[in-house]
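Question thread 4412

I'm putting together a teaching handout and wanted feedback from people who do this every day. The idea is simple: show students a protein as raw sequence, then show them the structure tokens that encode its fold, then repeat with a second protein so they can compare. Below is the first pair exactly as I plan to print it.
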Amino acid sequence: MRVHRLLVCLAALFFTAPTLAAEPLSPSPTPAAVDPAFALWLTQLKQEALANGISQQTLDAALTDFQPIPRVIELDQRQPEFVDTFWNYLDRRVDEKRLALGRDNLREQKKLLRKVQARYGIPATVLIAFWGMETHFGRSMGSFPTPAALATLAYNNRRSAFFRAELLQALTILEQKHLPAADMKGSWAGAMGQMQFMPSTFLRYAIDADGDGRKDIWHSLPDAFHSAAHYLRQSGWRPGEIWGREVRLPEGFDYDEARLDLKKSVNRWAKLGVRQASGKPLPKANVSGAIILPQGHGGPAFLVYRNFDVIMEWNRSINYALAIGHLADRLNGQPPLLLGRHADNQRLTREQFIEIQNMLGRLGFDPGEIDGVPGSKTRLAIRAYQKAAGLPVDGHASAGLLEYLHKAPAKGTPDS
């Protein structure tokens, strides 16, 4: 799969969860009686690995005395308590401390970053933004043994086939001797190194930039930065183009046109009255982009381009992609966002979002699975309901929407 860290991208584009790499590794559990089903599963896994060219030596180094890690299971089953807002998400990730560290690292790694940009066309500020977001500039890469974490998820998780494939690819990395098994550590979900690559991403895109014969994204910044830039370029990054910009929407703008899958040329958006956030006209360009409203029609608006889509390949969260883009802009000397600070910033609990989904269903608007996750089908249902109710059609779940739904008559009642 092309999506980096697919496991840790929440289905909800607006969920916020603690940084996965920062989770501490719990002590090894006291040995217990071996579960026969688990013993059979592990035997079959090792047989598959051997058939795929993994040596017994590698298996012994990675999975000897392996038992599922309870903390990994706990983290996998944990559900976010809140559906967070864009502003809360952004303010925690683009703050003065992270900006200061980012500027320091830009200076310290200037020579290396210049070489990477010359080869791949990825701006230094973008790479530093990813590094800062993923592992706090290498400070929080995770302490879970990757093979054991992936094996735990492959045995216990509902996505066992995916994790099993990632485990086999992690074993392939060890077989290729890029690092010792004892040093292969990362997040509970198997993301590794300075930039938190999944094993499949590593095998596709990792680069031995320092020429030592190993692709070491854990300890070698040249390898880590070249690998990240290679991934972004292969995902379609367009050198010389920006990811997007904050914009000011005209009075009477049709918010139903503000969605990621509806793209128009910059010239067309300009004719519709869209301007830069400062009020200046948009530059003349035939580049296509989409308008997105991460906190509804009362919040900030962004016109995003192809490079934003590439960031979304890395992590399928709109909030994440906007945070990466804005952090890179701030590191490049641009100012904070100008508009939308007075939007409704109340977080919804999962229970409240489930309530929204249930109420939409009762009113005849299909929200998809009732799971408390603001996925694409639920957002379409919100848009359909907003259109029918004469509300701004922004597809945004908010406390105001929930309050309005409480007042709405059920489908089929005399007032419906």
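The second pair follows. I'd like the answer to focus on this one:
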Amino acid sequence: MPSLRYADQVVIITGGSSGIGRGCAQEFVQAGAKVVICCNNEAEGSAVAAELRASALAQAAGDAVFIFCDVRKLEDVQNLIEATVARYGRIDCLINNAGWHPPHKPIDEFSVADFRDLLDLNLVSVFTACKFALPYLRQTRGNIINMSSLVAVIGQHNAPTYVATKGALTAFTKALAIDEAVHGVRVNSVSPGNIYTPLWQAAIDAAPDPLACRAEGEAAQLLGRMGCVEEVGRLCLFIAAEATFTTGVDHIISGGAELGYGRKS
């Protein structure tokens, strides 16, 4: 029997059909939450929601539904929020997880349009979801968790656009936490390091030496492995359910990747 630490709370997870978003959805459903996952892939989102719903039924836990949403589109985000409230009558937690990491390359090879598009996906979409969800989160004294990245703190080679979006997201989180404290809404961010996801596996598969690529990814952490999506999900669940005196904090989950001196040149 699962521990229903977040029973009957309503949680929206953007990009909830794969990777870290799916890990979060799994942990929240097992904790008894009613989870709304969204993505822009109807088949994938519906299948994952059905799988989570079946698991929840078997464990007498929470629930999961899918709502199609391209977070870059204002009307889709509005519909996501309104459809959630129409179904459940409330929102207790918003996890802004949808985003993308472009292939690594120097600034010369990114166009201005590339950067604007990434800003829309990784940053403006978070602003939009927060803006439309906050009237309901204020009613429940709920919380927001924004998925940032370790590289927002330490930088990353050949990733100037991605790092910029995540650095802005961490700063946005802190500013919003100040404004929303008066309403009892907590706003935090989570900054994963190397978490083994389908995107990581795609990079491994595309590498000239996949085994060496995987080994390099594992060796970047003091703990000698990549994290798993469930570990990020459990951190998010702790922030939502139990870290009730925590707001404006960026929670790094990295296996110690950022610690100690390393060869830089």
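Top answer:
Good format. For the second protein you could add a caption like this: The chain has one domain: 10-197+227-253. The two ends are 52 Å apart (CA to CA).
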